[in-house]
Inverse folding.
């Protein structure tokens, strides 16, 4: 009995020490070097619309709300709480007192109202204005209270959008410095202060000693744009950078075996798809779309493109990512998605040809943007279409020309010139972000402007989208999204391709870091405070 | 000579004018609207129009051209993407391209000319075979691959140099700091490899041609020392095509080295050009193309002037 007690004591002590070792105390100091695949362009959050610029602004500025990385729900940040008016046309945010910008100015309701009103003012030409189509204006209630006057159909998802990336800018400093100067020397209230920007080489930030939220652990952050991923991987291997914003799928298994590097992954809030231009024949014909779907195996294509051992992407079956509610993944996978079926595809192509829907001399073009993954997918599709006797070709275009083609096409406002195209979408953590833009008609099937580039119109989908935007009851919204997504996917407007998994190479000395589903770079916020093991 | 130089400067102005019109026209013809690229997907037609108005893209084309040229010369032409004067963006990157290009050309020249001469005077010897094989490899190997291999060898295996980037600078240049010097080695070796190989082959073939001339036999029969024959008679006559090639290499300094800079994350003009093309930043593309053209025509002018010094038979008056 005594022996057992001693043993139990030893185990308890061992466990205690183990736990202590596991819950290591954060160390102060050090420099964190972060590699980005792209050059930085805008450091003013009011005009910044690229995710890699957000890596920097995320550290220099604070947002009104923060997204909980586990639940993806908006949580307090600069705003300590918020409430809706009865008619859902207003959201009132109460701000934390004692928040200061790096130059000592207080952050007040005036700065919050100025930031959002500046973005939505068309005279300022902010590329982010379209993100705020739901916002009428922001009013100041008192020094620490603001009122967002919103369109009635946006209340359910507005806080999520506010929390996403839109940070608060100091009104007086911005007006004093002017737009261009502020973009070069941003002043925020975030955990790090801007120091210097050597274009194309690096951006340096230093710890904000007076950060209002918590004592920041890391002394300095250096952001380095490294355009070639192979070079970035060598830097990671050598320890020249601590975090890489991307990884080469083929190199992931090698890095998994390395002691000094952790491969960190988190499912991303994104959706990549093959789409048909439904304003033209034969793409408006559902049987043709089904035949294309069955002419190849999307699952095999995704496995081969993303190297099944690296798992940097997973097969998509619907537009709403699996990490979001209302994704309905299992139903779509088992009941809607089509497997490769060469015989059935051949039959359908034959029938369509006999019916005159499919012209045998017509070349089917699969357009893709310049990234390797989507170019490979286009090649796989075209190879299979050719095996079925169709004239098919790939047309990879660099982004400028691609967007031009998708947005301009010809003079017909109800259709563009593309046949089949491959695109991607990433959005805020609400199913609305993955349905409204791509499948709604009234605001989005507009040539040259919005994102329903399939020119898909379905009264049921239109109705459910609008209803889901005007109800606050999440269960009811979920039902609506499930219904509308099942409808869209069973019409085969898109062939869902993949959801990219956010994959980051992280030096093992970096602690309390986790990739973010929104592809941003949160290092210090209400949920984390990254530190470096010295 | 003075009147020749003045005439050539006049020609340069004309060439630059033609290039500017050509580039501007090509930019208009190229697919891709800068406003769409800047704004990204999902932007409303009104917002796109506001951006076009802001950039002056809705004015008639000839007005846009005149505005571009005027603003470029008075220093107020602004980048669409960075919203900063193009001159200051280029000035910030120029030292990086200049030092990388210049050092690569110097290295390529001091290695390639002796290698080409040795290869020619000992034709068909093991030394010749070695030089020609290495030169052939240098020409055939893509620069980005050479750069990656150098990184693997010098940075990862030997742990002697940093992988990429520019390191610390002083007065805008890396070469004035030890950290900067360590950073420039790999891009410089990668960039010079192709130029070195090309110039070696050119020097060799040019020397071989001259060494068969009668006056070389005469010089030797007069009992002149072999070094005098090779350097004083043969090389002096073989140097003209080599000079032309070195001149072209100098031209590429201004053009920047797109592949080397991209692979080694060197923040020079080549990378700026690529990112500007991707962003449809017409203002930066326009200014950079003119600068590159100027670099080429200027280097050709210098080479032409040097011809007169290298070969007394050439006069320009």
């Amino acid at each position: 009995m005594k022996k057992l007690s001693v043993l139990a004591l030893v185990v308890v002590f061992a466990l205690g020490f183990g736990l202590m070792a596991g819950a290591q105390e954060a160390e102060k100091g050090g420099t964190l070097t972060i590699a980005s695949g792209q050059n930085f362009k805008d450091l003013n959050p009011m005009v910044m619309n690229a995710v890699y610029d957000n890596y920097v602004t995320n550290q220099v500025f604070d947002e009104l709300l923060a997204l909980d990385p586990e639940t993806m729900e908006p949580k307090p940040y600069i705003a300590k709480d918020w409430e809706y008016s009865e008619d859902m046309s207003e959201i009132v945010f109460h701000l934390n007192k004692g928040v200061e910008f790096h130059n000592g100015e207080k952050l007040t309701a005036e700065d919050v109202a100025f930031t959002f009103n500046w973005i939505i003012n068309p005279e300022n030409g902010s590329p982010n204005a379209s993100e705020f189509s739901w916002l009428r204006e922001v009013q100041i209630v008192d020094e620490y209270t603001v009122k967002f006057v919103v369109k009635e159909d946006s209340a359910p998802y507005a806080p999520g959008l506010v929390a996403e990336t839109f940070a608060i800018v100091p009104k007086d400093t911005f007006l004093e410095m002017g737009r261009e100067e502020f973009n070069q020397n941003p002043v925020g209230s975030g955990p790090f202060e801007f120091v210097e920007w050597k274009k194309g080489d690096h951006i340096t930030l230093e710890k904000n000693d007076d950060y209002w939220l918590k004592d920041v652990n890391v002394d300095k952050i250096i952001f380095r744009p490294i355009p070639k991923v192979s070079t970035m991987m060598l830097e990671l291997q050598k320890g020249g950078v601590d975090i890489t914003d991307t990884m080469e799928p083929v190199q992931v298994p090698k890095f998994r075996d390395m002691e000094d590097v952790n491969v960190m992954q988190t499912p991303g809030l994104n959706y990549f798809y093959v789409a048909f231009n439904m304003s033209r024949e034969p793409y408006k014909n559902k049987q043709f779309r089904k035949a294309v779907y069955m002419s190849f195996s999307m699952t095999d294509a995704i496995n081969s493109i993303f190297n099944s051992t690296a798992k940097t992407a997973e097969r998509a079956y619907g537009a709403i990512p699996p990490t979001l509610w209302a994704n309905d993944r299992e139903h779509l996978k088992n009941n809607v998605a089509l497997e490769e079926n060469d015989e059935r595809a051949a039959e359908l192509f034959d029938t369509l040809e006999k019916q005159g829907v499919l012209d045998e001399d017509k070349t089917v073009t699969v357009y893709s943007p310049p990234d390797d993954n989507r170019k490979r997918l286009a090649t796989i599709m075209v190879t299979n279409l050719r095996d079925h006797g169709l004239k098919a070709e790939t047309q990879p275009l660099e982004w400028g020309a691609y967007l031009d083609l998708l947005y301009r096409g010809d003079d017909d406002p109800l259709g563009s010139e593309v046949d089949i195209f491959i695109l991607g979408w990433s959005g805020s953590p609400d199913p609305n972000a993955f349905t409204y833009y791509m499948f709604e008609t009234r605001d989005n099937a507009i040539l040259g402007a919005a994102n329903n580039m399939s020119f898909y119109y379905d009264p049921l989908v239109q109705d459910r989208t609008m209803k889901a935007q005007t109800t606050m009851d999440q269960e009811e919204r979920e039902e609506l999204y499930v219904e509308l997504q099942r409808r869209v996917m069973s019409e085969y407007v898109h062939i869902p391709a993949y959801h990219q998994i956010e994959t980051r190479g992280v030096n093992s000395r970096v602690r309390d870091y986790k990739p973010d589903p929104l592809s941003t770079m949160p290092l210090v916020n209400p949920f984390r405070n990254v530190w470096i093991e010295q | 000579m003075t009147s020749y130089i003045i005439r050539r400067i006049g020609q340069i102005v004309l060439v630059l004018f033609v290039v500017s019109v050509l580039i501007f026209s090509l930019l208009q013809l190229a697919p891709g609207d800068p406003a769409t690229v800047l704004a990204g997907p999902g932007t409303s037609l009104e917002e796109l129009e506001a951006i076009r108005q802001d950039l002056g893209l809705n004015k008639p084309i000839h007005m846009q051209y005149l505005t571009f040229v005027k603003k470029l010369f008075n220093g107020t032409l602004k980048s669409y993407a960075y919203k900063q004067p193009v001159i200051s963006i280029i000035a910030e990157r120029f030292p990086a391209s200049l030092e990388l290009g210049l050092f690569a050309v110097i290295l390529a020249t001091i290695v390639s000319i002796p290698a080409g001469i040795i290869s020619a005077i000992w034709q068909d010897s093991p030394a010749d075979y070695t030089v020609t094989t290495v030169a052939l490899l240098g020409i055939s190997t893509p620069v980005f691959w050479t750069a990656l291999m150098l990184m693997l060898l010098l940075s990862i295996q030997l742990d002697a140099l940093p992988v990429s980037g520019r390191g610390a600078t002083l007065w805008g240049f890396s070469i004035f700091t030890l950290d900067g010097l360590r950073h420039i080695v790999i891009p410089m070796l990668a960039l010079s490899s192709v130029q070195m190989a090309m110039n070696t082959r050119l020097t060799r073939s040019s020397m071989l041609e001259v060494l068969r001339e009668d006056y070389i036999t005469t010089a030797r029969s007069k009992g002149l020392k072999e070094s005098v024959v090779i350097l004083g008679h043969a090389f002096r006559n073989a140097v003209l095509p080599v000079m032309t090639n070195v001149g072209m290499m100098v031209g590429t300094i201004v053009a920047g080295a797109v592949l080397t800079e991209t692979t080694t994350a060197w923040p020079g003009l080549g990378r700026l050009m690529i990112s500007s093309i991707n962003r449809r930043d017409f203002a930066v593309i326009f200014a950079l193309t003119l600068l590159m053209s100027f670099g080429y025509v200027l280097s050709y002018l210098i080479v032409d002037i040097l011809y007169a010094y290298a070969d007394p038979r050439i006069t320009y008056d």
